[in-house]
Amino acid sequence: MRCLLIVLIASLTFAVSGCESGGALPDRMRDRFNAPQPKTQTFEGDQRAVFEAAQTALRRLDFQISRSGQAQGILNGHSRLQAGDSFGKARQYTLEIRLHSYEPGKTDVSAVLREQEESSSFAGATDLPIREHGLYSSFFAALEQALKDRTGSTVEPVKTP
To answer: In tens digits, what is the pLDDT along the chain, a chain of 161 residues?
Structure first.
């Protein structure tokens, strides 16, 4: 009984003391545990018009819409499966879009790009957020163009810092 109490106290002390090496984690490993920060731009237009333009932009980028909720401001799309160099390897991108209107005539569009990769060398698939990729700028450019096509005027996105 006394031995069990000593082991329990030692375990509790070890668990509470923590680990100081957490700050020394490599950036790549730390990025896997941190939530991805979305890329955001503000566009002039009500949420409904921007939502419909975002759907058009996804289709122009050859993404399939997998989830759509205009009232909630949620739009998800996924790319085609891209075959890899070796047998059993494939890659796919998903774009998660959130729309929020905080004031009349302006809508914030946030996007997070994720990459899923499956390979025969490891079991299962990876699902990693991509922090920097050309698809972000391609999506926002296609969204801007879709808004211009809808209104017939030159719509410029509002620059956000």
So the answer is: 777 778 778 776 766 665 555 556 676 666 667 777 899 999 998 999 999 999 999 999 999 999 999 889 999 999 988 776 666 678 889 999 999 998 888 999 999 999 888 776 666 677 778 888 889 999 999 999 999 988 765 545 555 54
Place of tokens 């991805």: 36
Residues 92, 64 contacting (CB under 8 angstroms): no
Residue-by-residue DSSP string for the chain: -HHHHHHHHHHHHHHHH--GGGGG--HHHHHHHSPPPPEEEEEES-HHHHHHHHHHHHHHTTPEEEEEETTTTEEEEE---EE-SSTT-EEEEEEEEEEEEEETTEEEEEEEEEEEEE-TTSSSEEEEEESS-HHHHHHHHHHHHHHHHHHSS---PBP--
- Is this model's pTM higher than 0.90 or not? no
